[in-house]
Amino acid sequence: MSVKSEVAVEVHDVTVAYHRRPVLWDIDVEIPAGRLVAVIGPNGAGKSTLLKAILGLVPTASGRIEIFGQGLREARGLIGYVPQRETVDWEFPIDALGVVMMGRYGRLGWLRRPGRADREAAERCLAQVGMAEFAGRQISQLSGGQQQRVFLARALCQDARLYFMDEPFAGVDAATERAIVEVLRSLREAGKTVIAVHHDLQTVREYFDHVVLLNMRMVAAGPVGEVFTHENLQKTYGGRLTLLDAAAEAVRLAGLGGVAAAHPVGPVRRAPGE
Residue 267 — pLDDT band, cuts 50, 70, 90? Predict the structure, then answer.
């Protein structure tokens, strides 16, 4: 399948409503290919909804979405998806390798069974996220960080061109966070695009090179060095002073060439509709 554009995702005038209550209003954004992209905003801003709308998982009330210049149906084979961990049924009786091999089904179709090449690809992806020794472990017996690595490996096994990740760092341990960052950087080096909902403002500059700031409406989008500013964060978070203070400190440290501060912004619960 040929790629028709250097723009990975185009969203034009998209509105999404749940039970007639708007969650996203008139969203316009273009996301360039080959970038690591953070989608940030406060609780209830519609960050996860934006990803789901692009993926066709929730209906749009209006607007148009293109992926590499194509509709979702044509581009579906180019996409990998890592959902939020809490949306997954971790009691389903399957081992880690089985989960990762699910990433091959899109290539195989439902009538073909995975073969040796598919199993080997799944094993390589598990090894890439540091989970090779847990291939036969039931997913319910894995820690939260290990479960997240398995789902990341499943997405890698799809060998996609564009990856969507819904809070991939939420609730994981430091070792898993480092492993995910390494995977993201390797994907970028391979020319892939990653769009991730992210909640830790202090690591945006360190982990990502493009950012989308969202609060039901589009606030700003572009390279981190240009768009991730205190002014734009104020527009995005409004009067939520705790987050704003942390954001200001993150921007200050980034400007000084520093890294994450000692008190990172932790995960926060979403409002309904997020």
Answer: very low
- Taking the C-alpha atoms of residue 224 and residue 89, their distance in angstroms, rounded to an integer, is 35
* DSSP SS3 for 219: strand
CA distances from 28 to 12, 73, 153, 213, 231 (A): 5, 21, 31, 12, 20
CA 166-170-174 angle, to 5 degrees, is: 130
Phi then psi for residue 138, to 5 deg, are: -60, 140
Residue 140 has pLDDT above 60, yes or no: yes
| CA-only gyration radius of the chain, Å | 18
DSSP secondary-structure letter at 94?
-
List the beta bridge partners of residue 29. 11
DSSP-derived 3-state class of residue 14: strand
Residue found under tokens 């996409």:
79
Looking at residue 28, its pLDDT comes to 95
pLDDT at residue 109, as a whole number: 55
User: Residue 228's closest CA among 244, 207, 246, 212?
Assistant: 212
The band of 91, judged by pLDDT with boundaries at 50, 70 and 90, is: confident
Cβ density class 151-180: b for 16+ within 10 Å, e for less: bbbbbbbbbbbbbbbbbbbbebeeebbebb
Give this prediction's pTM. 0.81
**How large is the greatest C-alpha to C-alpha distance in the chain, in angstroms?**
56
Nearest one of 188, 189, 173, 4 to 85, comparing CA atoms: 173
How many beta carbons lie within 10 A of that of residue 248, not counting itself?
15
Main-chain dihedrals φ then ψ at residue 227, nearest 5 degrees:
-105, -30
